[in-house]
Design a protein that fits this description.
The complex is a heterodimer of chains A (352) and B (328). Chain A has 352 residues and is an alpha/beta fold. Chain A is built from 13 helices and seven strands. Chain B is globular, with a radius of gyration of 20 Å. The chains are: A alpha/beta (352), B alpha/beta (328).
């Protein structure tokens, strides 16, 4: 497993070799986005408990995997997320308010700002994988340089769509990066029950594509392997499967209770000894790239941003029921127009 | 004009589309060098090459899933599913994504995809090749569903489907692929989706049919014609959006309805048509509506295919029944 920073924040030999590849500004930026992601996530859970948003899928523990990978993307690149990639969404340009809107049950949260190539969260497991392959295919057919990145979890690798997507990508040598966050559990089912193979990365071999196993709580290593995979894709050398080994500190969703299926000492170990934000913070402090005061002021600033996002989301105009009919087809059909009238007037037309 | 079978007309439409729309791509199993198992893409791989007529791995969800990724980047994938009965692995991609993407993103990304599939029975195909499950797709908001019954309709409807910004399920009755030839206009022409075809006018009974049931309906109507009963036959052509206007107009005139459906009875499109007519033209009805359908049993192996599918004789019986009950 590739690791450039140890859990206690020290650079490994490989880490030292790659250290100068990224500027100090970039390294600080990774930490800032990880803090933003964490503050967003913690606040979202509180909002759910207060009934201000619906069921929410927490990501705490996976910040390094999400930020390390998305930091390597260009604005022309496509992102196909699952439903837990709030960190990725924030990084690629989704406003905080809109991520909240999604979890408030508003379809507006699915639509990225103009120019942001981010698909809406994908709920049916693994279905985004062949779609991302299609986007990469478009890049290759048009001889463009954009790549396509698809996020999914360990559970998704048991689905047929995972196989179909990887197989297509290998056959057509497409510029797509399969980024798997193996957080150990698909809701309650541990990876040992998901697969007999020791790792997900090793399955790449069967598709004749590179497979990379990386410490997903090491933002530096994730950023590095992602860069290599993206370069390969942009240079026409095809896809890469990355398995980022990480851990979801909380439950699958706010409706789930992870204490039912995870041993408490395992959870404790991941929380206390392998936290991705602490790891990178310690490393940067140790290397003298940041000060504790800076971290504090960033955290405060991120909180303000999150506050602002909540206010904006909560102040947004309530959804109109008649919007239900607007985008089903490019033009509202006769049948839907009648149902829209029924919705507007609350009267069934031919009964009056 | 050229004399073409339906499958030739479909191939012609695809050729014209590939020629005139650079964003059109064909994807499917055996559609390249082999020209499709029914030859619906015959010669297109040779003419347009590997990057526009693409033999994919054998994976329906992969075909439809990757079509979505191509479509959001401005391509117009025309995917072939080899038989409608093999579409089920792609069902999740179609129902959860193809049909919903426009709604979910409020139109942010294009999702203009055509999914073609041969369907239905009557050709002595092997087991599990002959389903008529159009209802699944008509039932799913966000999709348009088209079924031609003649060569010239097949071409015009397919080109209209390809021009559509909305995703279209285009179902091709295998029974009619080579049933007859007719004059098909050359070059690009469209038959607008949502418009039914008045096959023959009549005054006593309206017979509604689509796909391979259109010739069955015509035969049933002509049988009844010998007894002096005048049947109006309507080929729906588009199942969603259905041409309510033409149907209601006809029912208002005749007051009697027979619907011929190849699919099993329960919750087939006929059920919806009966509900729609009941809601909109109940007071014009002279007799209870009748539907002639296949039975609510799994599509049988072909030895019993003719027992399972609606026949002209049954259509005629239904017409006699509604005419008698109507007191003519």
């Amino acid at each position: 497993m590739i690791q450039w920073v140890t859990p206690d924040g020290k650079l490994t030999k490989q880490g030292l070799q790659h250290w100068s590849k990224f500027s100090s500004d970039e390294k600080r930026e990774w930490l800032r986005f990880m803090i933003l992601t964490r503050q967003f996530d913690r606040r979202a859970i509180l909002l759910q408990r207060q009934g201000r948003i619906g069921t929410y899928a927490p990501l705490e523990g996976q910040e390094a995997a999400q930020i390390g990978s998305s930091m390597a993307l260009h604005s022309e690149d496509w992102v196909f997320p699952s439903y837990r990639e709030h960190g990725v969404a924030l990084k690629v340009g989704m406003p905080i308010s809109q991520v909240f809107l999604y979890w408030m049950g508003r379809v507006e949260g699915c639509k990225p700002p103009e120019g942001v190539r981010l698909m809406p969260p994908t709920v049916p497991i693994a279905t985004q994988i062949p779609q991302a392959v299609g986007a990469a295919w478009a890049s290759k057919l048009r001889k463009e340089t954009f790549v396509s990145v698809v996020y999914f979890g360990d559970g998704a690798t048991s689905e047929g769509d995972f196989h179909e997507g990887l197989n297509f990508s290998g056959v057509f040598k497409l510029p797509v990066i399969f980024f798997c966050q193996n957080n150990g559990y698909a809701i309650s089912v541990p990876f040992s029950r998901q697969s007999a193979s020791a790792t997900i990365a090793e399955r790449a071999k069967a598709y004749q594509i590179p497979g990379v196993l990386v410490d997903g709580n090491d933002v530096f290593a994730v950023r590095g392997v992602m860069e290599e995979a993206i370069n390969r894709a942009r240079n026409g050398d095809g896809p890469t499967l990355i398995e980022a080994v990480t851990y979801r500190k909380g439950s699958h969703t706010t409706a789930d209770d992870a204490t039912r299926y995870r041993p408490s000492d395992e959870v404790k170990e991941w929380i206390e000894e392998r936290d991705p934000v602490e790891r990178w913070k310690t490393c940067l402090l140790h290397e003298g790239f940041i000060s504790l005061e800076e971290v504090e002021s960033w955290t405060h600033y991120c909180d303000e941003q999150v506050d602002h996002g909540i206010k904006e989301a909560e102040a947004s105009t309530p959804a109109l029921a008649t919007h239900l009919f607007e985008h089903v087809y490019h033009q509202v059909s006769r049948k839907l127009l009648r149902q829209k009238t029924e919705c507007e007037t609350r009267e069934i037309p031919w009964l009056n | 004009m050229a004399q073409l079978t339906m499958v030739q007309a479909i191939c012609d439409a695809l050729q014209v589309a590939l020629e005139e729309m650079p964003e059109v791509l064909l994807l499917g199993e055996d559609i390249g060098k082999n020209g499709g198992v029914f030859r619906a893409t015959d010669g297109l791989w040779e003419q347009f090459g590997d990057e526009r007529v693409i033999d994919t791995p054998l994976a329906e969800a992969g075909i439809i899933g990757s079509s979505i990724g191509l479509a959001v980047n401005g391509f117009k994938p025309v995917a072939e599913v080899q038989f409608l009965t093999f579409i089920y692995p792609a069902f999740e991609q179609i129902i959860s994504h193809v049909a919903r993407l426009h709604t979910r993103t409020q139109g942010a990304f294009p999702n203009s995809i055509v999914i073609r599939a041969p369907y239905g029975g009557g050709i002595r195909a092997p087991e599990l090749h002959s389903d008529s499950t159009e209802t699944f797709f008509v039932h799913t908001p966000g999709l348009k569903v088209v079924v031609p019954s003649t060569p010239s309709d097949a071409k015009g409807l397919l080109l209209a489907a390809i021009k559509q910004p909305d995703p279209v399920i285009f179902l091709e009755p295998m029974k009619l692929y080579r049933a007859f030839k007719e004059d098909v206009p050359t070059g690009w022409y469209e038959i607008p989706l949502g418009s039914a075809r008045l096959v023959q006018t009549g005054t006593d009974v309206t017979i509604l049919a689509w796909g391979a049931m259109v010739p069955v309906a015509i035969q049933g109507a002509s049988e009844c014609g010998k007894s002096g009963i005048s049947c109006e036959v309507i080929d729906l052509r588009t199942l969603d959006p259905v041409d309510e206007e033409t149907i209601i107009q006809s029912v208002t005139k005749t007051g009697r309805v027979v619907i011929v459906q190849e699919a099993p009875r329960t919750l087939g499109l006929a059920s919806e048509l009966m509900a729609m007519i009941q809601e909109q033209a109940f007071y014009s009805l002279e007799a209870p509506m009748v539907r002639i359908t296949s039975y609510d049993v799994p599509v049988p192996m072909y030895a019993l295919e003719d027992e399972f599918r609606p026949t002209a004789d049954k259509v005629a019986q239904a017409v006699y029944k509604v005419v008698q009950e109507g007191g003519k």
